[in-house]
């Protein structure tokens, strides 16, 4: 080695040592990216550079999260054209024609973007904080090229999987060959062109390996544990006009995440909170039943989390095609039908006349089979459509999708313990008959239990007669679960009868006639208002006490006993910010609830009255906001009975003589519906303008839907505006978009009601405004919980930045789709939306 060589080597080593730490923020034709340097995103979240996987003789250019371990390379430029690991002179540059090019030591292009631009600018390549590697000509111009259009094995938030049916372009994610080899592997993940679409993993390009089940507008039906992930921002954007369909997801707060397909074909969702190391959130396929078609055509896999081998059986009315193969665990030929369908037989044959029409057999909680076809029919017509076409093998009606029918072999069905959908399978009458006998037996059993219930009711009635002498009935704590009228609740009722404890809470049962007198036969002059669950009347009892009487509309479908028990439970909810329940009254179909009467009526009568609005000074408004928050906090978290209000609005906030707020109508949602935390309900009760997007669109309600309504209420209180009748002509924005717009411009105090003039605390008002905007974010997961709200309201703390609310529920009852536009809704009465077309 000559002296010159030594000098060269030395200076090269020195240079590379120095440049080790070098970070750049762009790549231009003048400044290529050499080895030892990395390109970083402005927020230092992502980094792009040269890397060489373990024990491989190859070198690649890739992108990874800058500071989260273990390092995951989320995108590789030259995955199929590696550089030699010894190549120290390769660099990434921008060519004269504006393309990014990776050149090796011999200046040969190893990889290049393939764009044709007649550029007379000087393009630069940048790495964005989203992980998108882009080429731009000028700041603010559309990108000439972006890595997000070419996914590798990883889907970053904002990246899209899907297709454009007009251009024929589809984007897939492809696994690496092995953990240390980024070249194209054998697993492919993408979206199908079916309607509704499914996500599939294929092996070798075409053999199905896993599928998600159809998308139901918020989640995939075949992934039952996705329910809470719904709240974490998955989307499927469909643009019929452009013929595109894309699946993507977004993030919340300080969480980072990526979704990738491992070299073994496992689809994983990884996340990192606040820059901690990567954690696994979810993966599939995980269990034997997750593998596509494990049990063959017409086979069913019993999804059991513990077992490592799939438990296969045949659909009802089917048996293994080959018992021999089946018993050896070879399910490729699956099962076949045992009894010929009536519609398939030649009706001319004499034997057929005595046979009956085919029917449907219902399977609950299943992963629906592949090859569905969609129809826009309703529930009943869906059944008829399938019944009248002999090649229709099964149908399902999924609320948030509609009618699905199957004409091909039913494959990849799993039975879940919960979640999934109901599937109706066509069977010959003879196959159904067996089950009808079982139904008869069940009927006898249930008749017996009805008899028992009647007996129990008589016993309870006798007790009530005694109790009525005091005018009260009562119940001990935690005894009765209302919505399930099971024997255990009866038993506990009897248990209660035996153990009377006078210290327990009582509920007064009023005499119907006395209520009639008090309200002058529910005269119109005594009517205070009309709520979602019935009308409210003012009444004066004989002893002179004033009460409010709610006359429940009869559509609750609750029996008298259930109603009373529910009232007993609700009467135990006691908090200074809830209206006190004084008793109930039941006669025939009439169900009345008697509350304490509130001097200052409801908040809307003051807040939205231009003449009287001034009565509510800032101190009172702030007190009302905090009070409502506490009341809601109690309902959601601190009471022994979790209650989601579902119809929180200004007219349901009553004010006592000191302007203290009291939430009314709480617990009524319970009477009208079930008791789940997060439920998907057929019947949507609520008020336009206060309804959260997920509730209005899909009937999903949770604490977070109440939080949303609370947010709307807070913003109304600050501004003295009614959300449904607000429209700003200058900006052409409705209530929420307008407030966000003003707040975002840093002019939040413009929102504060002008009648308050300068007599308010700017910091408190800004705090309320900020909290209000956090509560009305489109995505339920972004919204704070009530404990967080309470905390943020009572002290100056760090608050996250609210996202812009895009959702506006248009005033259209028949159309349940969201409108991403600025149309205002004008109806402020509580409505009941019934699902379905
Ligand atoms: C590239 O980055 C340098 C600083 O690192 C900056 O001076 C230059 O303007 C940038 N060029 C472009 C095209 O953004
Ligand atoms: C690379 O090798 C190191 C040390 O052998 C090991 O700890 C690390 O997990 C390996 N990384 C990969 C991706 O295999
Ligand atoms: C680049 O694009 C041209 C046409 O746009 C195409 O013919 C060519 O095959 C592409 N080359 C590569 C390497 O993709
Ligand atoms: C995929 O292809 C490889 C190689 O061609 C083959 O060994 C493997 O069996 C194939 N797998 C499936 C499921 O078709
Ligand atoms: C299973 O059965 C099918 C057809 O009956 C046959 O082609 C296949 O080889 C069998 N597979 C195994 C693993 O035995
Ligand atoms: C029904 O009748 C057709 C001709 O009319 C015949 O080809 C077919 O085999 C018959 N099917 C059965 C199940 O008997
Ligand atoms: C039954 O449905 C199939 C598939 O949609 C269709 O091709 C066929 O024409 C239908 N048959 C009748 C009798 O409607």
UniProtKB/TrEMBL annotation:
GO terms for cellular component: plasma membrane. The chain crosses the membrane at residues 443-463. Keywords: ATP-binding, Cell membrane, Disulfide bond, Glycoprotein, Kinase, Lectin, Membrane, Nucleotide-binding, Receptor, Serine/threonine-protein kinase, Signal, Transferase, Transmembrane, Transmembrane helix. Pfam families: B_lectin, DUF3403, PAN_2, PK_Tyr_Ser-Thr, S_locus_glycop. Residues 24-148 form the Bulb-type lectin domain. Its EC number is 2.7.11.1. It is found in: Cell membrane. It is a single-pass type I membrane protein. Residues 522-807 form the Protein kinase domain. This is Receptor-like serine/threonine-protein kinase. Its main location: membrane. It comes from Pyrus ussuriensis x Pyrus communis. The keyword ATP-binding applies. One of its GO terms (molecular function) is protein serine/threonine kinase activity. It comes from the Eukaryota. One of its GO terms (biological process) is innate immune response. ATP binds at residue 550. It catalyses: L-threonyl-[protein] + ATP = O-phospho-L-threonyl-[protein] + ADP + H(+); L-seryl-[protein] + ATP = O-phospho-L-seryl-[protein] + ADP + H(+). Residues 343-428 form the Apple domain. Belongs to the protein kinase superfamily. Ser/Thr protein kinase family. Residues 1-21 form the signal peptide.
